[in-house]
Amino acid sequence: MDMIINGTAAPAADETWIEVTNPATGECIDRVPRGSKEEVNAAVEAADAAFGEWSKKTTRDRGLILYRAAELIRRDHKALAALLTREQGKPIRESTDEVRGCANIFEYYASIAGLPAGEMVTLGKAGDCLVTRVPLGVCAAIIPWNMPVLIMGWKVGPAILAGNTLVLKPASTTPLTNLRIAGLMQEAGLPQGVLNVVTGPGETTGAALVQHPRVKKISFTGDCATGHRIREMAQDHLKILTLELGGSDPMIVMADADIPKAVEGALRGRFYNAGQICTAVKRLYLHEKIAEEFLRLLTAKAESLTVGNGLLPGTDMGPLNSAEQLGRISSVVSETIGREEGVIRTGGCPLTGSGYSHGFFYKPTLIADVVPDAALLTNEIFGPVLPVVTVPDLDAAIREANRSKYGLGASVWTKDISTVKRVYDEVNAGIIWVNRHLIVPPEVPFGGTNESGIGRENGSKALDSYTQSKTLYLGW
Ligand code: NDP
Fold first, then answer.
1. How many CA atoms lie less than 13 Å away from 268 in the CB half-sphere?
2. Can you tell me the distance from the alpha carbon of 405 to that of 251, in angstroms, rounded to the nearest whole number?
3. What spacing in Å lies between the alpha carbon of 351 and ligand 1's midpoint?
């Protein structure tokens, strides 16, 4: 079994392949195998066979391979970023950030090799206990298409540093850069079988991986409904789960905020990666004293964004990742307007015409005066559409911010520390930013409450979720 199942074998028939499309042009750029249950079984067996030796290596040795992988990612960052843009759509600047972000994550986990530490518990005459943390075995990582390289880093870094082996299933629209990075990890010295990549549809290949009895842990990032399905499928074998299921992050701007800075924050927070980020700014709450001025400035900025092929210099925002995503965004906006649940300030339709005709482009969109129960506010809107609500005071902002089934991130823009304290105490979210949004450093735990999921990624504590405690009881 090769470490990476990457489709070098000849296809038996057309239906054995998945085509990967450039979302800016609609062209097929490559194809990967449509993996079946057999490939999943083979990958899990390879991971299982590699586990014994890999888990016995020192964390220092495992960390050194992560360091080397980071070096190789930096060496090849231009080619990796171009490939990511071609399969995902985002501007090359953002792809470069993401590729470097993956290297940062590997370096971070390499730098904390040695954790998690064990502990000694003394029980007097009853004895002494040594409690250590041991790896779980074969883990599964199911990756989405919005930030495939960064999220690969979040899962692969801690999993393999902790001594586990892994089977990774990329999203079907963005498998190529994941495969390329897995190849670099092999070049960095990762032994055969430690990281295995299986491409194929989530409904079959992904489900087979989730249900495989020898997979001990599943780390999934993606849609809330898929997360629930995975939880149901995983319960038969009592698998350990980390589920990152998205969000509907509120951004609250108070009257005392630095308005130009907050306008930039909203612009980047919503339109980075064409809005396809779990912690994007998905709801904007503006204090009534600054609301009109803020919207005027933000509208001008949104209208000045250059939307186009991410490979072209000067592109600020690329296409959506697929025709399905474009369809979802177009429908939710037209339904909102049809039901008179908000008023379009700019955008509100796909981009057509020269340069756009074969891609999945949508205009940067601002919708004001959105009514409280509109789908734009209650669902996760995964595209460049920002609903804006005017609020009279902080009480109303906090109340509205908490009217969501999600609880991933939230930001407050203010100079008043008591406002910060109230938002931190009262808004349901895993992370509260102050005068920032959308920054997710590898050193800090990331994850949410409620329907945003279960567990945390990043930070040293992520190692806990890839290990379990084991106790040596010494009776004297
Ligand atoms: P999915 O949750 O379906 O896809 C995420 C990953 O899960 C992909 O690798 C997918 O494979 C896989 N998958 C799908 N079904 C199963 C299954 N039954 N068992 C195991 N794995 C599975 O998201 P979509 O791509 O359908 O996007 C739909 C919506 O989800 C978006 O509009 C957005 O709202 C949300 N989303 C949120 C993300 C976040 O980071 N919060 C990321 C991506 C989507 P495959 O690609 O082959 O289908």
1. 11
2. 16
3. 25
Q: Kindly report the protein residue whose alpha carbon is nearest to atom 24 of ligand 1.
A: 223
How confident is the prediction along the chain (476 residues), in pLDDT tens digits per residue?
Answer: 344 443 344 444 468 999 999 999 999 999 999 999 999 999 999 999 999 999 999 999 999 999 999 999 999 999 999 999 999 999 999 999 999 999 999 999 999 987 667 899 999 999 999 999 999 999 999 999 999 999 999 999 999 999 999 999 999 999 999 999 999 999 999 999 999 999 999 999 999 999 999 999 999 999 999 999 999 999 988 999 999 999 999 999 999 999 999 999 999 999 999 999 999 999 999 999 999 999 999 999 999 999 999 999 999 999 999 999 999 999 999 999 999 999 999 999 999 888 888 999 999 999 999 999 999 999 999 999 999 999 999 999 999 999 999 999 999 999 999 999 999 999 999 999 999 999 999 999 999 999 999 999 999 999 999 999 999 999 98
The DSSP line for 74-116 is HHTHHHHHHHHHHHH---HHHHHHHHHHHHHHHHHHHHTBTBS
Q: How many angstroms separate the CA atoms of 28 and 104, rounded?
A: 31
Spatial distance between the Cα atoms of 101 and 3, rounded to a whole number of angstroms: 24
In whole angstroms, what is the distance from residue 353 CA to residue 460 CA? 49
**Residue 145 Cα, ligand 1 centroid: separation in angstroms?**
8
pTM of the predicted protein model:
0.95
Question: Residues with Cβ within 6 A of ligand 1?
Answer: 142-146, 169, 171-172, 201-203, 206-207, 210, 221-223, 226, 229-230, 246, 278, 325, 328, 380, 382
Q: Which residue's CA is minimally distant from atom 9 of ligand 1?
A: 171
Give residue 232 CA to ligand 1 midpoint distance, Å: 16
Residue nearest to atom 38 of ligand 1 (CA): 222
